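Quick check before the chapter quiz. The format below is the same one you will see on the exam, so make sure you can read both the input and the output lines.
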Amino acid sequence: MKQLDLPPDQSIRDKVAVLERALFLPNRRRKATWRYWGGVRSADGSEHPYATGWHYPKDRATIIPEDYPLPEEIPSLEGDFLYLGHYPAGFGHFLLESTARLWHLRMQDKAFTGALMLKPRKLDEKIVERQLQEFAELCGLELPPLIWPDGPVRLSRLTVPQQGSGALDLMLGAPEYRDMIVGRFAADVPAQGAKKIYISRSGLDSAHGSLIEEDKLERLLVAEGFEIYHPQDHSFRDQIGQYKAADVIVGVDGSAFHAVSLVSWFSEKTVAIIKRRPAIEAEWQARQLSQYGAARVGVVACDETAWSPAGVRRAALSMFGTLSFAAAGRALHDLGAIAHPEAWQDTPEAEREAQIRAIGAQLGCDMCEVRTSGTSLDHLPPRQKPDEIRLIGVAERMALSEAR
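Here is the expected output.
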């Protein structure tokens, strides 16, 4: 299976394998990573395609190495077990991937003996259990007890549902996954909080990229009656209560919008996603919100270039985007999110460049202009001059690459 195809209008109800004498192989990678060395093998030693985990449609999360070490005697467990896939690092990927096989619990009333999944080896299993249990309860589901074998174990009977959600194209979810959410998720959580909120990233680690001048964006939105909301300062249930209560939600693209989508069906909502980098994620997040019931969704484009520190292997997670505030104000007004776009004015170029240099000084790196998240800057030294933070445009960066 080279990729996961998950058309949002095609049922996966029947994409469930019940394996006799299946072999569960815990993750063997010591460090937290996007890849897991482990998974499920059928009794004949083959890897069943439904058991493969995916981050993106063509990006596998789980790989079973050919030399995965097996003991001479593999212990067996008797009972009916459920395979729940993988637990990735990052809140957004947890919402999209760790929950992606729970849909099967709504399809039948079997009481499973236990459930198994892959996790980073050093991650405390109680963290996984707590998050997954809370999500299942919010869906009105009873989660089987999670078990964590230290090594390979053979299971008398293992049910393997296909993954029903994921990142990018997979955000739209299979019908059975969406049915687990829409009209049901967090039914007992009261809608409580401000009617207009801005989901802020200003309190997060700036080394991982953001939108330059987010403070200016916040000031403009406060003037429009928005409350600045920092989701990391609130419990997940409280976040959901706030998102249920809000009629207008604006924010910089990020994992918070995956949580918003879970209750976007609850009331008629206007949602605006402001792009913080020239990448495709914001567009997929907008489609996800629409798919789950948001009434009005818009994407406010950032500039076509962003800035990333010299020396990084891949620009994706360290891109600092810039925004035309005049264009953003018009777009938010057209969407019905703000009333006074005339107050939104662009920052003078010299002032913006000074802000980019200040970010570079904080990171200890020159700042490079980039246009795609896959751009590599590891051929450049972090600093070309010890007493100056340089701004390296696209043309100069490409010339330096060719001269290398």
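If your answer matched, good. Residues 26 and 38 are 5 Å apart (CA to CA).
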